Every structure is written in C-alpha cells, then in structure tokens.
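Let us work through a complete example step by step.
Step 1: write down the sequence.
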Amino acid sequence: MMYAHFPVIAVMGLFLGAFLVEIFGTKNKYIRNTIVMIFVLLAAVLTFALIKPVMVNGEIITYWMGSWEPVEGWAIGIGYEVDALGLFFGLFCAATFVLSAIYSFRYMDSDDHLGHYYTLFLMLCGGVLGLVFTGDLFNMFIMVEIITFASAALAAFRNYKFGALEAGFKYLVIGSVGSSMILFGVALIYLQTHTLNIAQIGNEMAGNLTPVTILALGLLIMGFSVKAFIFPFHTPVVDSYATAPAPISMMFSGTVNKIGVLGLIRVLYQMFRVMDKEAMQMTLVVIGMATMFIAVTCALAQHRLKRLLAYHSISQVGYVIMAIGLATPLGVTGGLFHAMNHTVFKGLLFLCAGAVFYAAGTTNMDKLGGLSKKMPLTCACFIVGAFAISGIPPFNGFASKWMIYLAAYNKGMETGNFLYIAATIVAVVTSVMTLASFIKVTQTVFFGQLKATNDYIRDVPLSMRIPMWIGSALCIFLGVGYNFVNKTILNPAMNAAFSAERYFDVMMGDPAAASAGTNYTINLSVWNPILWLVLFAIVFAAVAIAIITTKKTVGKVMLSGSDNQDPDGKYAVFFSGERSQYSHVVGSDMFWGFRKNFSKYFDVFHKFHNGNVNDYATYCVVGGIIITIIVFIFVR
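Step 2: predict the structure and record it as tokens.
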C-alpha cells in the first residue's frame, strides 16, 4: 500500500535534512534554507496526504521497518502505526514545523551558527513526528531523548543572553529525569511482556496487571507528565520558553508538550486501559485543575511578555489534561480540540512576541507601550490570539473550552460528584483570569503612551507576518467551522482513543479488525442559549465570591521602573529564575491589589519557583511517587 511508506519517509526525511544542513548549512544560507523548506514541506505534505485514508476511510496504516512483520503473533521489528489519534497530532505538528521554519528565516538571520540551529530544528521536528507515528515503545523513548536534547540545545542557542545556558541546563536536567522514568518503565514492561510493540504490550496486559506493570504505569505517567509540563513538573520550562528564539518557543508550546499529552493517552487509554477507573479519572482532573489555575495566577504576576506566555501555555495544557481525565467522548473530543487550538493560538502569540522583540529589542512590558501605532498588523494578530486563548467567541479557544465546560458539567450532574462541577468552575474562572491577563498585556505593550525611545520601531518583514496571518486565520476558521473540524478529524481521533483493541489487532495483522472499534458521534452546538445562561451564572458566582472574600486595602502606589520600586518588599512576587530574571509585581501593575490581597498565596509559589534545579528535580520525584502510590492503591 502506497500510503504505508508516507509516515516513515516524512520522519526519515527530517533527519536526513538535519544531516544535509550540518554539511552544507555553513556554505550558503540559500542552500540551507532551501534544504530546510524541502524537508519540512515534504513532512507536511505526506502527513496531510494521510487524511483521506485514515480520517475519512477509517484505515490504520502500519509499516514494519525492514519488513520485519510479526511472526506467530510476536512483534520482532520496529513498527510504525498511524491511527486517527496519531495522525490528529501529526497534522498540527507538521503545520507548526512549516510556519516556524518560514518565520525563522528572517527572525534568525542576524544570528551566528545557523547551520547548527537548523540542524537542531530539524532533529526536533523529526523526533516529534517520529514519536507521534511510532508503534514501538522503545522507539518512543528514543524519540523522547532526541526531543529532549534538541530542545535543551535550542533553549540555550542564544547563549549570549543572560540565563540562556541556565535555562538549557534546567531543561536538560528535568527532561532527563522524565526520560529516565520512561526508560525505567519501558524496561519493567519488557521484563514482564518480553516485547516492545505497543499493540502486543496492550494485548499481553489486558486484564493481567501485576505489581511490576503497575509500577511501570506510574513511572510512564510521571515521565510523560514531565514532557507535557504539567504541575508540578512544569518548573524548568518557563525559563526555556523565555530564552529560546520565538519560533522555538512556538515549537515548544505547539508540539513538544503535545507529545507528552499523546504519550499519556497512549499509556492510559490504550496500553493499560485504566481510564475506566474513577480514581484515575479524578487524579487527572485534579492535576488539570491545579495546572490551569496555578499557572494562570503566576502569569498575572509577570512583566516579561514571553514568561507570561509561558505560564499561559502551562495553564492551557491543564485544560487538556482535565478533559482527558473525564474519560467521556465529549471530554476527550474537547481535550483533543483544545490541544490543537492551543498549538494555533499560542504559536501565534509567541510569534507576535518574537515580532515585538525583533522590532523593539525587548519583551519587558515596562519598557514598551503604544506599539499599535508602529506595529498595527502585529497588534491585530496579537489581539486575535488573545481573544482565542481567553475563550472569547467566535474564536477557536471558545469552541474547545465550551466542550470542556459542558463535558465536566454533564459528568458532574450524571455522577453526582462535586469534583467535576468544581472543575467546571475552575476552568471558567481560569478563562476569566486569562482574559484579565491579556487585557494587561495588550494595554501595556500595544496601547497607552508610546515611549520616545521607541519611536524608531517599525513592523516586522513580510516573511514574519505571513505565519502570523495564517495563525490568525486559523483561530477564526477553527472557531467558526468547528462542526466541520469535529466531523473531519476530531470524531475519528476521539474514537481512536477509545478503540484500543482495533489498534492492537490491525498492528498484529488481523484483517477482520479493520471495521471494529467504537463509533461515538459528537454533535454539539456551542450557541445553545440555555448553556450560555449556565456559563453566565458560573461567572457571576465566581466574581461575587471574589468580591466578598477580597479585603479592601489601601496601599502606596509605586512607579514601575523608578527608584520608588521595592523589589524585595513583602509583596514583590516573582517566579522561576534567579535574581536578574525576577519579574516584579509593582504598583504600576493593574493587578497590584490582587497580588497584595493574596500575598500569602503568592509567597508560597515564590518559594516553589526558587530557580534551584535540585528542588525542581525533587518536585518531579515527589510528584512521581505520589502518582505511583495512587496507581498502586486504586488500579488492579
């Protein structure tokens, strides 16, 4: 079958491109850029060509390296298996590769050693796509390692920027902790099942979990949680997002954290099939709630644009984890849709932040203002992204968030479990705080008074604006045309997540499995007035509670950037990084009162985000132990 070769050609093409760039990249930039575009476009074209056979026709494409097909029911070789779930992630990852490459050509033009940059860039792309398409657990670990080392190097690429090397080091250390846990889990599974093929592992462990495989489950959950950057495994990523070049920040937010999400779905829904356990559902929902809320409050305290966006990226992944934890067709559909939407709107916002840095030389919001007069097109794109991430209709973020709200609310009403109702409230409140944060950013960066020192600023070149325009158009299209997207790619991907047996049987060569599997259909109108009334009631209640519980205080106003700052005062909160990277919350911030009234809460996370990589590694280990204990207690 012709299509069977497409996934492996796409992945190997990216690695071949990295090899060629390293050889020819220093000789001529036009040759280097041409090589990069050829291979990212090839990967994108081959991935999108799989929509018809996989999404429309319902096929699952398999490919065995070296034609090492299963012998007597035992998988020997490395297999690629592309189902609708893997292809769903592959589609937006491949699109991100292309947009990031186009943006990089001009954005990175003044940097040195660009041959190395594009080599690492293509290695990162190949690792992401290889993990998405692989059907082999150890091959998945290899791709995780490629992603980790390429990401750490790219985070530190601009090593002349203070903190870049430190950010890369933190990413490497914490990423290696996650990778080690994955490797340990893989070793335990191989010890128990004597195979590394995901399909055969799933068949071997069906109803046959042992203490060894349960320990492996806990380790894999921890490892992929580190890769998804969810609480409490998120600590190193903020520095990495902030110091990496903007197109790489887009890659981190749009693709790297999504491979962690896909890994969790593969492990929980397909390999171990434990998402029918209420304890597992509640654990993921609680982790998602904590991730979204803690990260959005940290974002409110930032004065560096990319650091603020980094915390919002963590927060939005919390929505995805919570939705997947609901384990309902609507919840999983909403989670997958939001994963894709997050890639689009957060990629757009990071590109806009990159445009600001390219034009102004800084992303410190205290040094910016009035840029809408100088960069109107970038401002317009940023506003689209801000509306989308805040869940404002008719943009894409609203459609996916609405699915998540409704899924959590419905599950709470059906089960009588207040946790899911609370999850709905937390999700809505997080969206309100996200909107508040972006009101702050938009006012501070693009509106207000243009500083005289920034009068020279002009909008960015066309090649940088085109990816931002495409991202803006997608934010609108995915919101308005959500029914088409739902029917074309979301429903097949959601059904694939629930169809573990079909995934297994097709990979192991059972032709009768082609028509098997679940067939849920989600038909949802986000414009139902009754549901809007419920949403309004939740928002109104949240605002009322905030007003009632907030203390009325009067404080001295301190001017940002002046000698009146008290950066080490009681309420000067900062997160993630050493002293020169601290982001101070001072009186000029419109959320000064919020920060002051909840100072004890912020003090806790000031101490949590202390910049010490040893503490960050400890958080990972402790979090992994807690998850493993939960798994041992509740999974049988």
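Step 3: interpret the result. Residues 553-619 form one domain.
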